[in-house]
Structure formats: structure tokens, C-alpha cells
Write a structure and sequence with these properties.
Blueprint (H helix, E strand, L loop, with lengths): L2 E14 L5 E14 L4 E9 L2 E10 L2 E8 L3 E5 L4 E8 L2 E17 L2 E12 L2 E13 L1
Antiparallel strand pairs: 1-2, 1-10, 2-3, 3-4, 4-5, 5-6, 7-8, 8-9, 9-10
Length: 139
């Protein structure tokens, strides 16, 4: 099983900083969905603050992975109940990142689906934000 199809992707990311400030980002994009024996893989391009990046989100069981390739690159793993370490790779050097995942949920149906991630992000050991990320796709 390795189906590929073009999809419309909607991303909503709600980030709460330790002081209580909330930032919400909403985007709609075209993307590519691949269904595999392990789960789903969704790839799309994004641009934030003039920086372009290719994002690939994939699932395997109850875990997810976000691969970001651009001027700032990263591979973040989301495993419920676990802290995983990674780094943001920048032109100026690597920035250590720790992801503490509360939940990963996936609904995958023939005409669309939703991948939701709920996690805290620590940069250089300091909690920087708590995030609820939701990616919805439609064929």
C-alpha cells in the first residue's frame, strides 16, 4: 500500500508561552498525501517571515515525526508520554530542542483526515511554549 494523492491542507497551530501569551497561526496549502503500511505522510511547503521550508509529517503507530527542511531545519519526534531530543539546525549553529508530547491523534478517512499534536517545546532546556497543532487534509 503506497497511495499518493494531492490534498488541500489546513494548519492551525496554537502556541501558549509560559507567561500566558497565545499566538495562533492558521494556513491553508496544497500538499501531497501518501498512505503507507505504517501510517500517513503529508508533505507541504510553507513560508514564514520570508523563509521557505518543506514540511513532512508522518505517523507510525501512536507516534508522529515532523521533518522540516529550509534555512532552519529540524526533525522532531512526537511520542506520547515521552520527551524526545532534537535540534533546530540554523546557519548560526544548532539549537537544542526537547519535545514533551502529551498526545498524538490521527483520523484518516478516504476523503480526508486530521493529525493533532499536543506538546511542550523546550529550547536550550527552557520551556518556550505549549502547542496544540492540528493539520486537516481533504482530497
Amino acid at each position: 500500500m503506497n497511495d499518493e494523492m494531492n490534498v488541500r491542507v489546513k494548519i492551525v497551530s496554537r502556541m501558549r508561552e509560559p507567561g500566558g501569551d497565545v499566538n495562533e497561526i492558521k494556513n491553508a496549502r496544497r500538499g501531497l498525501l501518501r498512505r503507507t503500511a505504517q501510517g500517513v505522510e503529508i508533505t507541504y511547503d510553507e513560508e514564514q517571515d520570508g523563509e521557505k521550508a518543506r514540511i513532512t509529517l508522518s505517523t507510525q503507530g501512536k507516534a508522529a515525526r515532523m521533518l522540516r527542511r529550509g534555512m532552519t531545519s529540524a526533525e522532531l519526534r512526537f511520542i506520547p508520554g515521552e520527551r524526545t531530543s532534537s535540534a533546530y539546525v540554523t546557519l548560526y549553529g544548532d539549537i537544542p530542542v526537547m519535545i514533551d508530547t502529551r498526545s498524538v491523534s490521527l483520523v484518516d478517512e478516504a476523503r480526508g483526515g486530521v493529525l493533532a499534536l499536543d506538546y511542550d517545546c523546550y529550547v536550550s532546556g527552557e520551556m518556550t511554549y505549549s502547542t496544540r497543532f492540528e493539520l486537516t487534509w481533504r482530497v
